[in-house]
Write a structure and sequence with these properties.
It catalyses: guanosine(527) in 16S rRNA + S-adenosyl-L-methionine = N(7)-methylguanosine(527) in 16S rRNA + S-adenosyl-L-homocysteine. This is Ribosomal RNA small subunit methyltransferase G. The structure is a single chain. The protein is 41% helix and 23% strand. With 214 residues, it is of the alpha/beta class. It has a seven-stranded mixed sheet with strand order 3-2-1-4-5-7-6, with helices on both faces. The longest helix is centred in the N-terminal third of the chain and has 21 residues, at 23-43. The radius of gyration is 16 Å and the shape is globular.
Length: 214
């Protein structure tokens, strides 16, 4: 797939998601994919390397969750186990007004993330290489999110200290995680599960909202 076709696929996907991004942001998203593909040859950041699938699986799969999260009006967001940068980097490109931390304990992955944020000019992003249990920021986050990081119960337990007062967990999941929800600690409250239709992706996706119990 040529870059022009990738750009067309991205533009059509954004339209279906109801997201308006300017040409510079769309260029940044495609440049991010190019960096991911380049670094993947050495660092094995992703198993999905087919150009057309990279648009749907890395960009649109992340951006499908943007509008529901943006509706909560967060100022700060932590992407836990960011890996190759999803959903944090697409979020940072689409919402330069958010302060975003990308956290991963893998040095190779955070080396990529740091280089990507520099090359993409993402001044709203901080990359942290640390275990989530040991990461102690000065302030908590409005949204703590993850994509394919851990089951919900562990995600909540390991990141509880990262929530700002009134903050919420927003976990990107595949099919509706009934068993994971049933295993959540008793001192948190389920807020809901939002289905996330992803353009070009047949598999199910959803966003699971959780908060501290009163």
């Amino acid at each position: 797939m040529s870059e022009a076709l990738q750009a067309q696929q991205l533009e059509q996907g954004l339209d279906r998601l109801g997201l308006t991004l300017d040409p510079v942001q769309q260029r940044q998203l495609l440049d991010y994919l190019a960096l991911l593909s380049k670094w993947n040859k050495v660092y094995s950041l992703t198993a999905i390397t087919e150009p057309s699938k990279m648009v749907s699986h890395h960009l649109l799969d992340s951006l499908a969750a943007l509008a529901p999260i943006a509706a909560r009006h967060p100022a700060t967001l932590a992407d836990i186990g960011s890996g190759g940068g999803q959903p944090g980097i697409p979020f940072a490109i689409a919402r330069p007004d958010w302060r975003i931390v990308l956290l991963d304990s893998n040095h190779k992955k955070t080396s990529f993330l740091k280089q990507a944020t520099i090359e993409l000019g993402l001044g709203n992003v901080e990359v942290v290489c640390d275990r989530v249990e040991q990461f102690r920021p000065a302030q908590g986050f409005d949204i703590v999110t993850s994509r394919a990081f851990a089951d919900l119960a562990d995600f909540v337990r390991w990141t509880r200290h990262l929530l700002a007062p009134g903050g919420r967990w927003a976990a990107l999941k595949g099919v509706h995680p009934f068993e994971e929800i049933a295993a959540l600690p008793a001192d948190v409250r389920m807020l809901g599960v939002e289905p996330l239709p992803v353009p070009g992706l047949e598999a199910e996706r959803c966003l699971v909202w959780v908060e501290e119990a009163a």
